[in-house]
Amino acid sequence: MSFKHIGLLCSGGDAPGMNCAIRAVVRTAIYHGIKVTGIKRGYAGLLRGEFTPMNLSSVGNIIQRGGTILQTSRCPEWMKKEFRAKAVDILKHQGIEALIVIGGDGSFNGAMALWDEHQFPVVGIPGTIDNDISGTEYTIGFDTAVQTAIEAIDKIRDTAHSHARTFLVEVMGRNSSAIALKVGVCTGAENILLNNEKVNHQKLSDDIQRGMARGKDSSIIVVAEGPTAGRSYDIQNVLKDMYHLEAHVAILGHIQRGGSPTSNDRFIASQMGNMAVQSLIDGKYPTVTVVRSGKVLMAPLMECTKKADNNLEEFQKLAETLSI
Description:
Helix content: 40-55%
Shape: elongated
Number of strands: 11
Number of helices: 10
CATH architecture of the largest domain: 3-Layer(aba) Sandwich
Strand order of the largest sheet: 3-2-1-4-5-10-11
Distance between the termini: 59 Å
CATH class of the largest domain: Alpha Beta
Structural class: alpha/beta
Low-confidence stretches: none
Largest sheet: 7 strands, mixed
Number of domains: 2
CATH topology of the largest domain: Rossmann fold
């Protein structure tokens, strides 16, 4: 099928680099003579008919901007078949023949349903700072989130040293420890507490006190937030009540979502946007852009509809060795 008009939306949490992917999709489509319509605020905006025509000017001067110019949202209604059927009718009424979705595994499940139920052509681009989508080694936004956290912890370490304090620095990672592990290694953290591991408070206390015994007056503990943000406060209380250790908590929170994307995120997002359009042109759908063995490729969308803890487990030993 030769497409003349495609739709584009972002869904779920925003991630730095989404604008780079949007830019690449629009410019690649226009290069091939394909009309592009942007859909504001994800699937919810689709159901409300929030459409905006996109041209070269629409994506000018956005490659360096964080967030997404199309905005994004969650859409509980999308879980119901009748709303997905309504969405297909809306798309067809607009003359949109295929859809590119930038988002996470939930967004991809929503896109997959459009294909399974209505054979509506869809292609996905993985965008989430957590790097937690099955089938791909990398998702847009991860590198920027890591760099943001590194810069924050470097500043916190200055204060930790000046006041001889221990800091529990909580980074995002509800279902993945990828950010925590990479940030921990890159900042020389004394401990890294992964999202899926029970905290060994005794070991944590022993590690802190061992450092103090050799003259180390400050420590940085990187904590993956896990299912509930604020996990670090529970750890802080246990350290104080049971081990008489004072620790300060710094929760980095949503600053990790924002900011200008790194060169790595810009480059990968640009490749992914280009390849997503090319995949539609080549008649390869439902598919998703992925990174495997360091290369951007296309893969079946079904392979990327689940959570995956891409937490770089092979580097856990490295982190443990360097933190003695």
